[in-house]
Structure formats: C-alpha cells, structure tokens
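Subject: complex prediction, re-run

Hi both,

The earlier run crashed halfway through, so I resubmitted it with identical inputs.
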Amino acid sequence: MFFIITALAAIISTIIWYKNAPEDKYMLNNLSLIYWGTTLMWFVDHVIAYLTEGGAFFEITLDATLLGITVVLLGLLVWLIILLVKDPKDVFNKVLQLKR
Amino acid sequence: MACFLVPMAEAIVVTVVKNIVEKKEKNSDVKLSAQTELCSTSQTGLSWSHKLSWLNKLLWGGVVLLALEHLWHGEIVPWPPFLTAMNNPADIAPMLHEVATIGTSMAIFVTVVWVVMVLVADHKTKTISAKVNTEN
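This time it finished cleanly. Structure:
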C-alpha cells in the first residue's frame, strides 16, 4: 500500500509541477523527484520480493497504509525545509525588511 | 534490511561530482563571457550540473524515505550499530546479500531512469534549437 500511495503522490506532484511549469516558484520539481526516487526504489524492491518470495505484489494492510501516509508527510516535510532554506521568492528578506 | 545503503553511497558520490561540475561550469562561464562578452553556455542546452541535480534528488529522496520505512519496520535504529541485523551474527550474511542484490538493483534502476530522462531532455533541446534555427 505504501508503494501505491507514494506512486500516487509522485504522479500528483508531477501534474501540479507541470501545470505551473516553466515557473517553479515553489520548487515542486524537488517534491516530485523525491517521490519518484522512492517509487522507483520500492518498485525494484517489490519486483524482487515478488520474484523470489512470491505472494501478493501489493501489501494492503492498515500498517502499510499508515506507513504510506507517513512517507508522503516526510516527503512534504523535506520539500518544505528545502523550500524555506532556499527561499526562491525571497520571502524572509522581504519580511525582515518590512519589520525594520 | 539495509538496501538503501547502496543508493546512499551513490547519492554521496553524485553530490560530490555535481559540486565539482558546478564549479567547473561557473569558471568556464566566467572565462567565456570575458572572452566573447556573451552569456553562459547553458543557453545552448541543459548544463551537466542541472542534469546531475535530477539524479541527486531522485537518489536522496529515495534514500530518506526508504530510511523511514526501515525505521518503521525496526530494521534500523538511531543508535549504534544502527542496523539491527548487526546485533545477530546470523543476520549479517542475509543483510549483506540484500544490500548486494536489492540495493544495487535499486541504484542501477534509478540511474537508468535518469539516463533516459537526460536523453529525452537532450533530444527535446536539440529539436527546439533546430526549430528556432529554421525559423530564423
């Protein structure tokens, strides 16, 4: 389930990025690449596990769903930290100048 | 168990290479603009540092989120020796096998996808510049 949730997050973030492209004020390319990297790695993990161990390709349990949601939240957190550190809209500078 | 270690090692190498390439590109841009009084070479296509940044983000993104999954499943812990498999000698060999097989496959697959991305981007850039040239 975490694989499906992360893949969905990757697809949605890519669509939002494409809708706003070529402008990327919110650095959404970072978010989509973070999710795509994870999706690709889990895809390999799932395929190898399926070929060697068999069983269900997707693990559909409550635990796997919660893990998927947590992974998406961590991805958003990483993206937000990068966005605030790089500050492409120069928000912090403008806010600090206004307060002076 | 610790399959994300191989992509992590690759991500570290790619980060170093990207920083070196970025510095070289900046230096060559300064030299070129001084010689010809023109703008940067990146106008003729995507720079290698930009392309490497895609691979970097793919790898680091995957590594961070996979590390969370391993933490969730109790395969890694935030204290030494970090990998729970290291506590039991019988688990070390399967862990190393997993790192060698799944970890390497992950790193190769992500890199192959990135190579395809770069080839598509280069092809698109060439097509666009050819169109611009014929229009002019």
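Helices of chain B lie at 5-36, 48-72, 89-135.

- K.
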